[in-house]
Write a structure and sequence with these properties.
Blueprint lengths: L3 E2 L8 E2 L8 H12 L1 H15 L4 E4 L23 H4 L3 H4 L6 H6 L14 H7 L3 H7 L3 H4 L13 H13 L6 E4 L8 H4 L8 H28 L1 H19 L5 H29 L5 H26 L2 H9 L8 H4 L4 H6 L3 H14 L6 H11 L20 H27 L9 H48 L8 H30 L5 H24 L5 H19 L14 H5 L19 H8 L27 E2 L19 E2 L38
Helix pairs in contact: 1-13, 2-14, 2-15, 11-12, 11-13, 11-23, 12-13, 12-15, 13-14, 14-21, 18-19, 20-21, 20-22, 20-23, 20-24, 21-22, 21-24, 22-23
């Protein structure tokens, strides 16, 4: 069939990139249908931090709110050195006691009442000794030992742990007054009072969405390669509607967490199939820009989410408003066809023919001449069993699995270190970036600028060079923030904000470009499965953020160090990747396994040698192999070569200075003969052909002594 490379029943047929489907107008229509749902996916992604945002709270019933364990080091404590001054002076306590000498003056004459009155000396013994009164008071020096030193409070791990446990157990407030700062009046935290002992459930809610995305990428990727892109897209859209709308009716946090997992699973299938469809529909010079257009649409949806939340005021209304537009994607079963590239790659030629005819009939289009010729060739194909490839076939490849592994590590490091920079940006002091909207829109605007710069650099340096540049910048920002900031005192906050913004800028492009390169390097027969692996790795990188929050940020510094080291390793691994720009998509595993890898900076040779490397070695007498006799070559007696064989210069390593000139059936051959001591050279260009007289021993040629 024209445009295909048949490999027989052992392997699928490689489809030519010159396949006449779809036409220009149909291609634009399909790309528009594949890009518009990115707005809904962006709205759903932007609503995740709003639903689980932590509000400010105040106890209503008058019970004292337990102190926040994270704020214990900053709470003011009394100075232990000032505590003794607040105690009464023991020497002043004796002034309040009556003077024994004055006490006796008010009594009658002791000589008259000696028997009735007690002895004044004995009376004073009944009174407490002022010097002993100080022994009943706590020693100020001992009092300071029971209080923690404010300067050493962060190092008292046992005191902090005990305070944290006591605060979590002593939270007796039954009614709270919450106040959100993200446009919503109520979210899951305020509705179910997920504070104090129940605050860990908020992190589980974030955790469940990301875990659902990871499983969705892996499962839906394999299914899209096995049953097709269209079926997986429509089924996952239906699941999004079912689980998303049921999520808005959750009655407790357990139901919310469970439904959130399945919603994430379904959203992963929608995102994955649309991403693969855009890659396979777009032309080779438009793939990157189409993908970036979908990314800009998704980020536009994320920018609109806080405004939509301010209009809805309730998280349940917001969830319903975001999920309901997915109803318009149900007709995709009719208007969005199956991937023709996948059908032809898996040898489903009859299904591909039916797809072409059905699409032309629905849109009332007359097939063009090249389409008709393509259909006629499809009809000649014998019916064979579909050659579908499972993701485990990746292990049998020679090079492709290495490329996928490198891209998995790169996406993991990119999205993982991105959360580290977000955490560093949110931990700044009040008055800089403490507002919720400032945090949210700063991250989104940095992402948009990153995509704009990435489009410019990709057109200038290619996919691999741009990925390498962003990875180097991410590694430098991570290492400088970990090493330099810890030693600064005065400029710590400005430098931390600057490095965090640079890290957000570069890590965003690093992760997204890794996903795009994977979609171009993976063959059509398993593109969805390979892309699902890289997307799942990116999900693992995002999953580290709620895990760290669940452990009260313990080990956060080590978490940042690990991802910084992974970023440094990725700099070396990216050099192993080939450049995917300007090439047609690979179809089979064999096509992807022989993807050439070009150098980042190709060398430019100013002058091109007239002789090849082998000819130069032969001409200079530095040939690596010793001379040998070829029985088919002419001898020194001057026998001419046969008419159907290559022409030869006798007995010498001849050199054609002006380049190779073809003979009747092949190029000229240099023949070595150890029996001849005559050296001849053909320096004038063309070697004798079959129609020319062959050289013989009687021709004048220079010998070893230079005489003719």
């Amino acid at each position: 069939m024209r445009g295909e490379r048949a490999e027989g029943p052992a392997g699928p047929v490689a489809v030519s990139p010159r396949c006449p489907w779809p036409a220009a107008a149909s291609r634009r229509r399909l790309l528009l249908l594949a890009c518009l749902p990115a707005l809904l996916l962006g709205l759903e992604t932007g609503s995740a931090p709003l639903l689980t945002a932590e509000p400010r709270k105040q106890c209503v019933n008058g019970s004292r709110e337990p102190p926040d364990p994270r704020r214990l080091p900053t709470t003011p404590l009394p100075d232990p050195h000032r505590l003794p001054t607040a105690l009464p002076d023991p020497r002043r306590l004796t002034t309040a006691l009556p003077d024994p000498h004055r006490l006796t003056t008010a009594l009658p004459d002791p000589r008259r009442l000696t028997t009735a009155l007690p002895d004044p000396h004995r009376l004073t013994t009944a009174l407490p000794d002022p010097r002993r009164l100080t022994t009943t008071l706590p020693d100020p020096r001992r009092l300071t030992t029971t209080l923690p030193d404010p300067r050493g409070l962060p190092h008292l791990a046992t005191t902090t742990t005990a305070t944290t446990n006591s605060s979590s157990n002593d939270c007796q407030c039954k009614s709270w007054l919450f106040h959100l700062h993200n446009g919503l009046v109520r979210n899951i935290v305020t509705q179910w009072s997920l504070v104090c002992n129940s605050s860990w459930k908020v992190h589980i809610a974030k955790f469940s969405l990301l875990v659902g995305l990871i499983f969705g990428y892996l499962v839906c990727g394999c299914l899209a390669d096995w049953v097709g892109r269209q079926l997986v897209l429509v089924v996952t859209v239906l699941f999004v509607l079912v689980f998303g709308l049921t999520l808005a009716l959750s009655v407790n946090v357990t139901m919310f967490i469970t439904l959130r997992f399945f919603e994430g699973f379904s959203l992963a299938g929608v995102f994955l199939t649309l991403y693969v469809a855009r890659i396979e529909i777009a032309q080779s010079n438009q793939r990157f820009m189409v993908t970036m257009a979908a990314s800009f649409i998704a980020m536009g949806g994320q920018l609109l989410t806080p405004g939509l939340a301010a209009l809805c005021r309730n998280w349940q209304v917001l969830q319903t408003v975001i999920i309901c537009p997915f109803i318009f994607m149900i007709p995709y079963w009719c208007i969005f066809p199956e991937s023709l590239s996948w059908l032809l790659a898996t040898q489903q030629s009859h299904a591909a023919k039916d797809l072409l005819l059905d699409y032309a009939r629905k849109h009332q289009q007359e097939p063009e001449e090249d389409v008709k010729e393509f259909l006629s060739e499809l009809e000649k194909e014998p019916p064979v069993k579909a050659q579908k490839v499972f993701i485990l076939k990746l292990l049998s490849t020679r090079i492709l699995w290495k490329h996928i592994l490198v891209l998995c590590v790169t996406s993991l490091a990119g999205f993982g270190v991105h959360n580290c920079f977000v955490k560093s940006l949110m931990d700044q002091e009040e008055g800089t970036l403490a507002n919720f909207y400032a945090h949210y829109y700063t991250i989104e605007v940095v992402g948009i600028l990153s995509c704009v710069v990435m489009c410019f650099l990709v057109s200038l340096m290619g996919r691999r060079g741009t990925l390498l540049v962003f990875t180097i910048v991410t590694a430098l920002a991570s290492l400088l923030q970990l090493g330099l900031i810890s030693n600064l005192t005065t400029l710590k906050e400005p430098f931390s904000i600057a490095f965090s913004l640079v890290g957000l800028f570069s890590s965003h492009s690093m992760g997204n470009l890794s996903i795009f390169i994977c979609a171009e390097l993976t063959p059509t027969v398993m593109r969805a499965g390979g892309l699902g692996l890289v997307l799942a790795s990116a999900g693992f990188g995002q999953l580290t953020a709620p895990i760290m929050e669940l452990h009260n940020q313990k080990g956060y510094f080590l978490h940042h160090v690990v991802f910084a080291c992974c970023t440094v390793i990725c700099i070396i691994c990216i050099l192993l990747l080939p450049e995917s720009g300007g090439r047609e998509l690979p179809v089979t595993l064999q096509d992807a396994d022989v993807h050439p890898r070009r150098p980042l900076l190709p060398s430019r040779r100013s002058a091109r040698s007239l002789l090849s490397h082998t000819e130069l070695k032969s001409y200079s007498g530095l040939a690596s192999h010793p001379p040998h006799r070829d029985t088919s070559s002419p001898t020194a007696n001057g026998r001419s070569p046969p008419a159907n064989g290559p022409s030869a210069n006798v007995n010498v390593p001849s050199a054609n200075v002006n380049g190779h000139s073809p003979t009747a059936n092949g190029p000229s051959v240099n023949v070595h003969s150890p029996t001849a001591n005559v050296t001849s050279a053909n320096v004038n260009g063309p070697s004798p052909t079959a129609n020319d007289p062959s050289p013989n021993a009687n021709d004048p040629s220079p010998n070893a002594n230079g005489h003719t």
